[in-house]
Design a protein that fits this description.
mainly alpha; Arc Repressor Mutant, subunit A; single chain; Tetracycline Repressor, domain 2; about 70% helix; about 200 residues; globular; about 0% strand
């Protein structure tokens, strides 16, 4: 298998713990890549394939749902870390940010593909929303715009997460055959242009 398993967020992780977590994640991805629906999987079989006990699985992953959410969070956290502050300066022109994000997603297609195809959208919403909230904080800091109210921010992040997941689902179903630049033409309109209008409405004159 040639997929790159996202690293656990905790950089200070004990190497033995990191190995068992990597094995658990690898076992899950192997089953999803083989076409298994997430809802058909059990903790016992993932633990057995990973070479760990059920007790170790619970200690490292919590539940199958938390396992997927951790993978999704770390995957998009890694992608967001590759976007530098210069790319977040408004006005964001020429689809540059959307293309960069989609290119990083495409580079992780061996992991992203089975997660999107075999797992429900609900397992993406929480971790993806957390990463998007962190990115929104970066955007407001870089551009020195006013922070949104909690209600507005909640709706904005949920909308962005839903749109992003929908775009990825179609892209996965089409075998990642569409170039990031082509997809960016409308994701920019749906996400980046709207985000800029919302943030600049309350920003400095």
């Amino acid at each position: 298998m040639q997929y790159q398993i996202p690293q656990q967020s905790d950089a200070g992780l004990d190497p033995r713990i990191a190995r068992s977590q990597g094995a658990i994640r690898g076992a899950l991805l192997a089953e999803l890549r083989a076409g298994r629906a997430f809802t058909s999987l059990t903790i016992s079989e993932i633990a057995e394939q990973a070479g760990v006990t059920r007790k170790t699985f619970y200690a490292r992953a919590g539940s199958l749902e938390q396992l997927v959410e951790g993978l999704v969070y770390d995957l998009f956290k890694e992608i967001s870390s590759r976007i530098d502050d210069q790319q977040l300066l408004m006005p964001i022109m020429g689809n540059t940010l959307s293309v960069a994000v989609l290119q990083h997603c495409q580079a992780q297609k061996a992991v992203l593909g089975p997660l999107v195809r075999q797992c429900s959208a609900s397992l993406f919403m929480k971790p993806l929303s957390e990463v998007l909230a962190e990115m929104l904080d970066r955007v407001t800091n870089v551009n020195q715009t006013s922070a949104l109210g909690s209600v507005e921010q909640s709706y904005l992040i949920a909308t962005m997460a839903s749109v992003l997941h929908g775009v990825l689902w179609v892209w996965v179903e089409r075998g990642f055959s569409d170039a990031p630049s082509r997809i960016a033409n409308f994701t920019d309109t749906l996400l980046v242009e709207g985000l800029q209008k919302i943030l600049r409405a309350d920003g400095p004159a």
